[in-house]
Amino acid sequence: MGQPKLLLPWGGSTVIEHLLAALSHPRIIARCVVCRRDDGELARVVDRAGGQVIQPAVDPPEMKDSVLAALGEIERLWHPAPDEGWVLCPGDQPLLPPGILQPLVAAWDAGTAEVLIPRHGGHKGHPVLFRWQLYGEIRTLGADEGLNALVRHPSRKIEFVDLDVPGILVDLDTPEDYARWRSGEAGGTAGGS
After folding, report:
1. Rounded Cα–Cα distance for residues 18 and 22 (Å)
2. What is the pairing mode between strands 158-162 and 123-124?
3. What's the pLDDT tens digit per position in 89-125?
4. Is residue 193 part of a domain?
């Protein structure tokens, strides 16, 4: 992107501030963001927006390592029970609308899923909800296994929630993505821009 994408302007704030606001829900205890040790500005913005900054002693090389760092800190601070949940969402999804967690939490409460995945048009998106009981299994994943290994496990109880929210599929990987989504092209909204 040529610059820190989570700090790019978005709808009067930044990409990460918009995401943290979209992930607000009365049942969410904390919104944790894993930052590299040299991401001082990102850490300041996350803290100012009410997020929990997690900066591991060693910068996580892969997404799974970032998730494990966050889960370790969640365990240390809040000691979740096995049937409690946690939400996974990449930081670069600025098209998630406010209230996105409402239908997901409602489906979570109504079901018994170990993993609850939103879908739009048959495609899986984020945020994804996981039972805390899976944390131990995540810690034992092989070096070449990502979190999707949990979803592929044949005995895993997975539920899907179909949403008319195309933003659950959108992340920012290139400057062209940013320009397109910020301008509201391709049928998306641009976070109030």
Report:
1. 6
2. unpaired
3. 999 999 999 999 999 999 999 999 999 999 999 999 9
4. no
